[in-house]
Sequence to fold (555 residues):
Amino acid sequence: MTMNSTPEPRLKVTGPIGDRFDEILTREALEFVLRLHDQFAGRRHERLLARMDGRKAVENGRDFRFLSETAAVREDPNWRVAGAGPGLEDRRIEITGPTDRKMTINALNSGANAWLADLEDATSPTWQNIVGGQVSLLDAVRERIEYTSPEGKEYLVTADETPTIIVRPRGWHLVEKHLSYTDRSGQQRPASGSLVDFGLYFFHNATELLARGRGPYFYLPKLENHLEARLWDDVFTFSERAIGIEHGTIRATVLIETLPAAFEMDEILYELREHCAGLNAGRWDYIFSFIKHYRSRGPQYVFPNRDRITMTVPFMRAYTELLVRTCHARGAHAVGGMSAFIPNSREPEVTARALEKVRADKAREAADGFDGSWVAHPGLIDVARAEFDAVLGGAPNQLGRDRSEVDVTAAQLLDVRSLEKHVTDEGVRANVSVALRYIESWLRGVGAVAIDGLMEDAATAEISRSQLWQWIAQQTVTESGTVVTRELVESLLDGALSDARRFEGDRFEAAAQILRRVSLDDEFPTFLTIPAYAHHLCERPVARSIEREAHLAAA
Fold:
């Protein structure tokens, strides 16, 4: 190396540079993301290895339990979390959705109290979606976002008051292959999706949000234990110091959407207590997590048709009751789960039935003590809000309901043996069809898809494919006497491909290939999105040098 040579950058943009990417991938922003990786990438790797050990233990017969080593945290009645930040006091209705410009504007006009700006399950993590989503958020925070569709339709924010933005970065298990990170020892690997999503949004928007009377707020997905929460808390503290804002400015809401996390709710709140606003009952991923961990433990753990796993079955009731009690004992919001029904003006009878289900779901959550809940479509907001208004009245939440009468045991959280093993031929066929159509859409860059009257995202697709794997592994017999086998699922998949409405540029063949891998292989992939992303969404590195890539000098 000569005296005048430039050191190789240690965080390198390898994806193509799209419109306005230079506003996000600035030298300063990438320097910040590099610092996050230098500080936390090693610990992230350790935590992911620990996840593998935990799954193996369950597969080998060990059941989850409340930790004896953290009993003092659970038994101490005196500690509390930071609670709501400005704009988070009333969260009775939150709308979820991806961060493309059209969906961003629709969410801001929706009338919801908060918007979960989703860079995770509702977003297909194409490079364009990830960086383009950051551009949308940049403009949304500054109240300047607009969009004109290819057909010439203009979208503008017209609401007098917009929802508080809460960003959901990708989970610890996901990577960003269009950013290459080289650690100080010279080992090169893809960047962490979590640190990229969090780092870019926080760096560009934290001080702007504070100036506008809000704050940098986040939903934390897929956490499995309190040590993963501690890692996020350290990321928050480091980041606040790095840009010079007050400790505790960041507020996080943790999705309790994995089975192991349900046994560590108190501990998760405790680790994040100086940054924590609450917990959310992430119902769809929670069901998937249960199936994933117990899929090989015998026919007693077989789950019925997806539509039969409602919030009123015993193990789901135990989980949500414990969540509300835990949150309110610590001054944290308890946010209810997703209503995935989609209104359809062309089918008024179907819509009426869907709205009645949403009404019953939200009435139950409000009566149970939840402070708010999620919807996937603006057309559900009024129905959901009415149920919470009826309970909350003029109060912003119901933190005063301590639910001290709730006493949930580990056995109740694991009580799936009482489920009716209601598996039908149609249920198997529906899982194949929904998973195929969702994955095909995901491969085209669309991560939230209306299918058969429901808003499907990666979590619901995970349930469908993991059930197929479990039914095959346990040689499940349907109510009609059909044994679920690889051959049966292959036949159903061939039929779904034949029935699919094909179009130029569709990805059905690739989707079928992925579905075969994640449902039919002997080994169970922990997430379908990992192999799908690696093989289908990663664009080749750009050969030419582009100044706007803002490659970093070696730190």
